[in-house]
Design goal:
234 residues; alpha+beta; Metallo-beta-lactamase, Chain A; seven-stranded mixed beta sheet; six-stranded mixed beta sheet
């Protein structure tokens, strides 16, 4: 199940795992030398994720959260309940949950996590495992505290950016103007050879380079905020 490779950093453990009925991609990121990994958005099946990591010789020591929606972190919202998730994970393994400071209160409400279960982050913070560095980038728009994770030439993007798509901006807490700035500002600065690893398998391929996305993803090619609002029906 899933895909793993480490062409640039020999210590990097990286696995893309398709899981759940909503075409989610969950990621395991860690240090082979340390034998430890973090799970990005661990919803749907805690057993499956612990099993995959274990078979790869890795121990889960934490979670990285892109945003607080239940299909990414478990829990309940607007009558929608997802099994697994960060609360179940921290109940099973010795782990803390890394979340952007603007998303933390929402995460507690949806999942029931305590403050002590979480580490609140600013944009630009880094999480280190062995020789592997994960940079946290605040990318608001889909939710106020959405964040992406950059590992040199890999971007794990949650629901901010999909292959040939982007996250919804019509949900509670969404902001079309912030999403426009995120896509055309923060993410537009990434190098062409950065590979996009989205939170859902919604596109024609499970990954894509930013070079290709600048060519094919029309959400990255909008010239003005007014044009963006018209396209998004706002």
């Amino acid at each position: 199940m899933g895909h793993s490779d480490a062409p640039n950093n020999p210590d990097l453990y990286f696995r893309q795992v398709p899981l759940g009925p909503m075409a989610n991609f969950i990621y395991l990121i860690g240090s082979r030398r340390a034998g430890e990994c973090l799970v990005v958005d661990p919803a749907w099946s805690t057993d499956a994720l612990i099993d995959i990591a274990g078979r790869d010789g890795m121990r889960i020591t934490g979670a990285l959260v892109t945003h607080y929606h239940p299909d990414h972190v478990g829990g309940s919202m607007l009558g929608f309940t997802v099994p697994g998730g960060v609360a179940e994970l921290v109940g099973r393994v010795d782990a803390r949950v890394h979340v952007h400071k603007l998303e933390a209160d929402g995460l507690k409400k949806i999942t029931g996590l305590s403050e002590g279960d979480m580490v609140r982050h600013e944009s630009g913070d880094r999480v280190q495992l062995g020789d592997v560095t994960v940079e946290l980038i605040h990318t608001p728009g889909h939710t106020p505290g959405s964040q992406c994770f950059l590992l040199h030439d890999r971007l794990v993007s949650g629901d901010t950016l999909f292959v040939n798509g982007c996250g919804r901006v019509d949900l509670p807490g969404s902001d079309p103007a912030q999403m426009y700035e995120t896509l055309t500002g923060r993410l537009a600065k990434l190098a062409d050879d950065v590979v996009l690893y989205p939170g859902h398998d919604y596109g024609p391929t499970p990954t894509s380079t930013m070079r290709e996305q600048r060519r094919t993803n029309h959400y990255l090619r909008i010239r003005s905020l007014d044009d963006w609002r018209r396209m998004m029906g706002r």
